[in-house]
């Protein structure tokens, strides 16, 4: 291996180093700071207490997403805490000259969906947010990661962070995917094989023809869940698919600036012979539609498999919480809820795949099915393309944009003891409501469950 050869991560990270502490961390410049109503209030308050102003407000994008209701968004928020947080965000943004895409704004939506669709997210950037799934933006060849509230305050004050450089990992998947396998299945498969802590201390690059052939929406789904295997973030090298997605969007470069940017973006790929600290390789043919059966995203199986016998005490505890038995078929799990949404799978491509499957069908009587778009722009696309008619005729309920039933910070909760097949990213205990039992899946698998009333075995 040649020491002069750099990985994609090295190239983007090194381009943002402002200074290095001898034998210590580095000061990294942050191009774009994304904020929402949950993790920003304390950071704004810290600055105010210290008499410090926000250094570069024009490099901040704010939206309301976690606490917002997904019904009657034109009405005052009923929950006191949620209403207070959203109002506080509005006040803080106004006071600090930060542009806010709040409720009622045509750009409002989940933070990790609106930034890419507006062209705010671009290759080669450094992007942070007080939210773990900031890794989504790595799909563009950006360094993107979640930060804590104290770090949010640091970025507000200096537009920089003091960080130790993570190690590098590469996950390569080559081959031809089986029928009905979506990007969500690919990342759930990877996590099921390497575990939820394999990426700890690493930035992960995804390589191979499977990722090269994915749409940008698919790549975002994969990078979104990098955090679920413990990685600091995930990245995919930008290519013509990336450039075509970014071009023409609201905040994308134009004219001569666009040409200069693309010329630079084309250099953002790992050099041949670049060394990674860790490597994993998988065959696409081994991947089938996936679900989770436990209480972390690593507890995953294909829909063709039975619930495995627990090996550890924590696995046994997870099965007990989920009310499942070793050897039980996935098709025997009594599912009553389906949630299609979240920053993982609430883009227009996700809803198109769902609508294509359910068109002319009707949801099962036992299923409550929620469609929650990721942004107001996705809402517009759903109605412009007539997908709304497909959903309503099939008995699905279309909600307004927000994080919704992904994390139960709002009214969209799954009742205790009930099973929900969800396109979100986490199946922790109580994630979708106290005692709720979450089964992660792709949008297509979720659509099939909604129509059939159970998880279908789908052998290829």
Spatial extent as radius of gyration: 21 Å
Percent strand equals 15-25%
Weakly predicted, low-confidence segments: none
Helix content: 25-40%
Count of separate DSSP helical elements: 15
Largest sheet: 5 strands, parallel
Q: What is the CA-CA span between the terminal residues?
A: 40 Å
Please list the strands of the largest sheet in the order they lie side by side.
5-4-3-6-7
Shape: globular
**Which structural class is indicated by helix and strand composition?**
alpha/beta
The whole-number mean of residue pLDDT values reads 96
**How many strand segments?**
19
Please, could you describe this protein's structure?
The structure is a single chain. The protein has 460 residues and is α/β, with parallel strands linked by helices. It is built from 15 helices and 19 strands. It has helices at 8-14, 41-50, 80-95, 111-117, 149-158, 183-194, 209-212, 216-224, 240-246, 255-265, 313-322, 348-358, 376-384, 387-393, 443-452; strands at 17-20, 26-29, 32-35, 60-63, 100-101, 126-129, 143-146, 160-163, 167-174, 202-207, 233-235, 278-283, 290-292, 300-302, 335-340, 368-371, 397-398, 419-422, 437-440. The strands form 5 sheets. It has a 5-stranded parallel beta sheet with strand order 5-4-3-6-7. A hairpin with a 7-residue loop joins strand 13 (290-292) and strand 14 (300-302). Helix 2 packs across helix 5 (149-158) and helix 12 (348-358) runs parallel beside helix 15 (443-452). The longest helix is centred in the N-terminal third of the chain and has 16 residues, at 80-95. The radius of gyration is 21 Å and the shape is globular.
